[in-house]
Amino acid sequence: MGLTRKLKAYMTLDRQRLGIAAILIAVCTASSATAQDLGPPPQFDAPDMDRVRLGQLLFYDPILSGNRNISCATCHHPRFGTSDAVSLAIGEGGTGLGPDRRIDPRNPPEQRIPRNAPGLWNLGATEFKHFFHDGRLEEDPSQPRGIRTPLGAEMTAGFQSPLAAQAMFPVLSPDEMAGHYSENDVSRAVRLGLLSQEGGAWGIIASRVSAVPEYARAFEAVAPGQSITFAAIGNMIADFIAFEWRADNSLFDRVMRGDAQFPPQTQQGHDLFYGKAGCGRCHSGWFQTDHAFHAIAMPQIGPGKSARFEDHARDDGRLRVTGAQVDMFAFRTPSLRNVTLTAPYGHSGAYAHLEDVVRHHLNPVSALQAYDMSMATLPGFPGANDTRIVSDPAAVAEIAAANVLNPVDLTDVEVAAILAFLQALEDPAERLGVPATVPSGLPVDR
User: Fold this and answer.
1) Rounded to an integer, what is the distance from CA 393 to the centroid of its chain?
2) Which CATH superfamily is domain 251-423 in?
3) What's the rounded Cα separation, in Å, for the pair 198 and 66?
4) Quick one: pLDDT at residue 429?
5) How many helices, marked H, and strands, marked E, lie in the chain?
6) pLDDT tier at 16, thresholds 50, 70, 90
7) Cis amide linkage into residue 344, ω under 30° from 0
8) Phi, psi of 130 (to 5 degrees)
9) Rounded-to-integer distance, Cα 312 and Cα 306, Å
10) Whole-number mean pLDDT of the chain?
11) Would you say the CATH fold of 251-423 matches that of 49-83+118-244?
């Protein structure tokens, strides 16, 4: 019995020691997100560089647009952090690049692009399964070919991933790249609902690319004996995006790997981000996103997201996808990688400055109610009623009522520290860059 009591005493002491050690470890790590807290490191597929180089040319080539005047890079340019540095872009019917883009008086657009052009960082990581601000294109095992799109199964055939399908949606959008009714063969096919059918928009674009000898040779090299299709073009562009804008070697990554340390202000911001400020509850994981959808009373400016037959400027967000009332005004949590480079912010680009959108999160309802249009960056657009929602008290109240964030009190010093931490997420990786020319011979946005 004596020996048993001694063994029990030692075991109790060991448990106490282990408990004390655990507490010390917890105290030491409570203010920092470790690699274990972030989950497994992000995964990327190994690139096929022949496909990547072909995708680079297609990404910067205006041949994919109806009027051969806009490329993917027009709204997603590396000069502007893979976005376009304006709140809401001018797509078809504009000339120029980024903040210098203006309406073409010879062919004015019908409206602004209704949502802000998001950055393309790390979209090739396997964890990214939802695309667009409302996630309307997403990986879904219950759907044909595992992809759900607004165009149904028709827009999934031949695409290797949701990213590849997403890359080709702007090509079919009248306001973005296709052009307006009767302007060109692509826009006519889109307006008539002819996509993959004989004589449809898919075939027209694929035929354009096939007719360029350099593209024909490049596709034959990567896919011998296979014809050039609309989906194959999207697959190459997706491979390029996944390679070109992989950004996983920021100061944050190096600190998490144990290869570096944060400066004091950045460390303070990190601790606030994952602690008192509560940012890490939604901006979680290695890429600071939970890939979920939240309503945070973001101001709605511009034309809103509506069907052509609808007469409103509201953007219902995720509700349009799921039909669930809980998703009213909810939008995808954006990754914060290179967030310092991708202004403006919010689904409508309501905030041109990073500090302003950070402060919005501290009290979303108050920020919404006090919103001023001077906080946005909008190219001139005669006749546009950009304040239709934010100047309507009932509409503002409806957006405010959906908000899920509680107010947080931070000092100016603490806000500055969070901004310093966000700077530590910057890794402006660019590997191939902008090509000097493209096979079509059309001008390249530089």
Assistant:
1) 30
2) Cytochrome c-like domain (1.10.760.10)
3) 17
4) 84
5) 15, 7
6) very low
7) yes
8) -120, 140
9) 7
10) 91
11) yes
Q: Which two tokens stand for residue 11?
A: 């075991």
Residue whose tokens read 């009591």: 5
CATH code reported for the domain at 49-83+118-244: 1.10.760.10
pLDDT, tens only, 416-429? 999 999 999 999 98
Q: Domain extents for the chain? A: 49-83+118-244, 251-423
> What would the mean pLDDT of 217-232 be, rounded to a whole number?
97
Q: Cα separation of 135 and 120, whole Å?
A: 15
d(CA 63, CA 212): 10
φ and ψ at 315, to 5 degrees? -125, 105
Q: How far apart are CA 402 and CA 393, in angstroms?
A: 15
- Token pair for residue 87? 């709140």
Residue of 356, 50, 9 whose CA lies nearest to 223: 50
Residue-wise pLDDT tens digits, 94-114: 999 999 999 999 889 989 999
* Closest by Cα among 318, 350, 337 to 421: 337
Cβ burial of 252 (10 Å; 0-12, 13-18, 19+) is buried
- How many residues belong to the chain? 446
pTM here?
0.91
Q: How far apart are CA 228 and CA 203, in angstroms?
A: 9
